[in-house]
Amino acid sequence: MDRFLSSAVNRIDAKGRVSVPAHFRSVLQKRGYQELYALRTLDTPSMDVGGPDLLDRYEARIAAEDPLTGTADDISFFCHGDGTFLKLDQDGRIIVTDFIREHTGIGTEVAFLGRGNFFQIWEPERLRAHGAAVRARLTRLRQSAARARQAGESE
Length: 155
Prior knowledge:
By secondary structure, this protein is of the alpha+beta class. It has one domain: Transcriptional regulator MraZ domain (Chemotaxis protein chec, 3-Layer(aba) Sandwich). It contains five helices and eight strands, in the order E-E-H-E-E-H-H-E-E-H-E-E-H. The protein has helices spanning 22-31, 52-64, 71-81, 98-104, 124-153; strands at residues 7-11, 17-19, 35-40, 47-50, 83-87, 93-95, 109-114, 119-122. The strands form two sheets. It has a six-stranded antiparallel sheet with strand order 1-7-8-4-3-5. Strand 3 (35-40) and strand 4 (47-50) form a beta hairpin. The termini are far apart. 21% of the residues are buried. The model has no long low-confidence stretch (mean pLDDT 94).
């Protein structure tokens, strides 16, 4: 499969490197990525990580914007100023830089979360808390939809 799926937690070594999970490295290899692009997310303490296509997506959006509105500048600030390139070494590790640590709160371990066409890196406890909040929102949505169906059937 050519998607980033599942999650894993790996320990950072003494040199500040962490191994990207093997199943994620397999996707990276299939896609031919030599370099990774990482971007601070807007609404969570995580980093989106993918290949050049992740950056290309934002740059296409910049090109589509009216340069006089300022939106293109804001998107550029976000994707260029809050982004960085990461090198994957021959052993499948990346360096967890201060740039990443400051935004995510990562200490000694990194949580990797598959997101389909890209993956995220998180501080493990923050990811657990975020996952619980996501599941709670989806549960409420499901319950609300079930109540709406029941109300529609009883009319």
